[in-house]
From TrEMBL:
<dbReference type="GO" id="GO:0071555">
    <property type="term" value="P:cell wall organization"/>
</dbReference>
<keyword id="KW-0326">Glycosidase</keyword>
<keyword id="KW-0134">Cell wall</keyword>
<dbReference type="Pfam" id="PF00295">
    <property type="entry name" value="Glyco_hydro_28"/>
</dbReference>
<keyword id="KW-0961">Cell wall biogenesis/degradation</keyword>
<protein>
    <recommendedName>
        <fullName>Polygalacturonase</fullName>
    </recommendedName>
</protein>
<keyword id="KW-0732">Signal</keyword>
<feature type="signal peptide">
    <location>
        <begin position="1"/>
        <end position="23"/>
    </location>
</feature>
<dbReference type="InterPro" id="IPR000743">
    <property type="entry name" value="Glyco_hydro_28"/>
</dbReference>
<dbReference type="InterPro" id="IPR011050">
    <property type="entry name" value="Pectin_lyase_fold/virulence"/>
</dbReference>
<keyword id="KW-0964">Secreted</keyword>
<dbReference type="GO" id="GO:0004650">
    <property type="term" value="F:polygalacturonase activity"/>
</dbReference>
<keyword id="KW-0378">Hydrolase</keyword>
<dbReference type="GO" id="GO:0005975">
    <property type="term" value="P:carbohydrate metabolic process"/>
</dbReference>
<comment type="similarity">
    <text>Belongs to the glycosyl hydrolase 28 family.</text>
</comment>
<feature type="active site">
    <location>
        <position position="240"/>
    </location>
</feature>
<dbReference type="InterPro" id="IPR012334">
    <property type="entry name" value="Pectin_lyas_fold"/>
</dbReference>
Amino acid sequence: MVMPMNFLVLLVLFMISFSCVKAIPTYNVVQLGAKTDGRTDSTKAFLTAWANACSSDQPAVIYVPQGRYLIGNVQFSGKCNNNHIMIRIYGTLVAPSDYNVIGNSGTWIMFESVIGITISGGTLDGQGSSLWACKNAGQNCPTGASTLGFSNSENIVISGLKSLNSQLFHIYINGCQNVNMRGVSIAAASNSPNTDGIHVQLSTGVTIRRATIKTGDDCISIGPGASNLWFEHIICGPGHGISIGSLGKDSQEQGVQNVTVKTVTFIGTQNGFRIKTWGRQSNGFVRGVLFQGATMVNAYNPIVIDQNYCPSQSDCPGKVSGVKINGVTYSNIYGSSASEVAVKFDCSSEYPCSDIRLENVQLTYQNQPAVSSCTNAAGTSYGDVKPSSCL
Ligand SMILES: *[C@@H]1O[C@H](CO)[C@@H](O)[C@H](O)[C@H]1NC(C)=O
């Protein structure tokens, strides 16, 4: 008997639709043994979930239900068999309260050589306060671990994640391409040492949108070899502001280029927009930077380029920075400075800053005109610029 043609077509259609609706494999950490009490070590369940998701030959989900999960140091490494792993976190991951457990590991939660990872939701609690106390007391303490790190990875999305009380940096991006963060919120005490909010280096194509960052060091810091960055709608403070640098620590170093930072509110920060380089020889550079649209609420140094950074005052012969800074625009920046010098360009005597632009910048100090100061800096000002430009 010959099968009717339309029966065959139906059969094929049925098989196709069946394979399409097949559920995405989902690995629930609780089903893999994690405990929600915040006290039982659940590291193994998370590593098992990762091993399953990473070896899946189709997109996979790691699901973290509500609750608190104590986890130690973890490394989620590629290369995986698929390029779409979604980590949905409804709960809080808690670091060990004894900082010695992860304090020398570099990073608490580390992703290495992965492609196509989305982290959505969740809270990461680094429990850093006892380590900060140790450091602030000048005792001998471990360096601490950064909370979340991505290295040598691409196509990363981080959305709606909260990071609390990291021991060291909250989030860092190193050697990555195409990273999107949105709705990230970060909080640590204003006196917590080295708790940079988000650090980006040796990476290209990094966007950060709608981030709220309160911390003890830079809200966002940009290291060598970062390019094509786009940061928008950032609220920073307390913290040390948004910094490019420190750059030029090494004599051979990749430059920073094509950076846009838009719509930022700085509240009581040490700096607003800062570029900072060591006062020593280097082949590094900074070019093509746009700082556009900021409200300063008592930022101590709202606009600052400091090319004389030399913290221990040694190893900086002649204090001449080799980092070449060219093409930096500050536009539509308003508000108050907590120090009299609201605009400070202190550039390298050997490689003066060039093509610095100020466009509609109005900053006051105690409701009085603030002051600007230029050393080895050239450029132009447009529109209403107060304090009047020294370029
Ligand atoms: C600069 O970076 C943006 C992303 O922030 C990107 O869209 C643009 O193509 C880059 N420009 C160049 C010349 O690479």
